[in-house]
Amino acid sequence: MHALKRHLFELLFIACLGTGVANAACLGDQNSTKVYAFDVVPQLTAAKIYTTWSPLLQRVGQDAGLCFELRLSASIPEFEQKLLKGEPEFVFLNPYHAVLANQKKKYQPLLADSEDLLTGILVVRADSPIKSLDELKGKNISFPAPNSFAASLVIRAELAKRKIDINPVFVKTHSNVYRSVIGKDAVAGGGVNNTLDNEASEVRQQLRVLFETQAYTPHPVATHPSVPAAVRERFLKAMLKLTQDEEGRKLLEGINLSKPQSVTYAKHYKPLESMQLEKFLVLAAP
User: What predicted TM-score, i.e. pTM, was given to this entire model?
Assistant: First the structure.
């Protein structure tokens, strides 16, 4: 019954997207005079993002005395354009986006998960005969987007280092990657550990992890430099408070942030600059 209700809600949400209803609401403290734009990188479908993030922001906003507008982008390149223009005040973004956002607009990471580290994965069908990366030469490999950190940038860099030339195909979301491999549109696909874990068991059972990268500090919530330090602190405290009750823990699990910790750019994300991933970066014209 719960799954049916969730499915019906997602269908209703999709119908609302065209009217802008989903983006219009203030999530949190309705008495707040300031509404903060909160963008989420679209790794998953818009419906999935809305159904996991909106109740969390409602709870956090009420506890922190803050109000948020959850803004959804149709694609990762669209999200990147908004980010590099400095539009979102709060943003949930991948680790390399955190590097770009800091370099371009001085965004500062605030919190990330402390337990579930991020790894990139290459998956093939469970029944695929492919056993090594070398067998991917010249093949169609699906990725969510050019600048997805562990799912695309790190994996493409790893393949290039091994002199394995592939034909990358970008299919917008991690969910699409997994389904493109199952449907044989690509022989392999790039994703990350936690998005695969979030898939239904019938999807996971049809896939096999061929390769996994080293682990990295996962996606942070970062803030624009215009966000006051006191507001950052109120948000952080409200997020940490969610770990203290079952409802709050479920909200955190829904966004893959089960054990939030305070993070800094210098300690957790600046080291990524040395990976020289910029040669694989593809930024759309503004």
Answer: 0.83
